[in-house]
Amino acid sequence: MSPILRKLLRDLARLQGQVITIALVVACGIASFVTMRSNYDSLLSSRDTYYEEFRFGDVFAHLERAPVAVEDQLEEVPGVAQAYTRVVESVMVPMPQMLRPASGTLVSLPPGGEPPLHAVFIEEGRALDPDRSDEVILLESFAKAHGLRPGDSVPAVINGTMRELTIVGIGMSPEFVMVMPAGSMTFDPKQVAVLWMNRDVVEAAFQMEGGFNDVVARLQPGADETTVLAAIDRVLEPYGGVGALGRAKQPSHYMLAAELQQLESMATVVPFIFLFVAAFLLNVVLSRLVTLQRPQIATLKALGYGDREVGLHYLMLVSVIVVLGALLGMAVGAYLGRQMLGLYTDEYFRFPYPRYFIGLDVAVTGVGVSLGAAVVGALAAVRRVSRLPPAEAMRPPAPASYRRTLIERIGLFSWLSPASRMIVRELQRQPLRVLLSATGIALSIAIVVTSRFTFDAMSYMMDVQVHQAMREDISVILAKPLPQRAVRELEHLPGVFRAEGIRSVAVRFHAGHRWRDASILGYPPDGELRHLVDREGHLQPVPQDGELVITSKLGELLGVRAGETIEVELREGDRETREVVVTGFVDESFGLQGHMRKDSLHALLREAPSVSSVLLDVDPLEFDAITQRLKELPWVLSVSSPRDFRENFEEQSGEMMGVFTFILTTFASIIAVGVIYNNTRVALSQRSRDFASLRVLGFTRREIAAILLGEQAIQVALAIPLGLLLGHAMAVGIMSSVDPETYRFPVIISARTYIYSSMVALAAALVSALLVRRKLDRLDLIGVLKTRE
Amino acid sequence: MLRAEAVTKVYRMGEVDVHALRGVDFALHEGEFLVLLGMSGSGKSTLLNILGGLDVPTEGRVFYRSWELTEADADELTRYRREHVGFVFQFYNLIPSLTARENVALVTEISEDPMDPVDALDLVGLRERRDHFPAQLSGGEQQRVAIARAVAKRPQVLLCDEPTGALDFRTGVQVLEVIDRINRELGTTTAVITHNAPVARIADRVVSLADGQVIHDDRNPDKILPSEVVW
Question: Alpha-carbon distance A612 to A478, whole Å?
Answer without folding.
Answer: 5
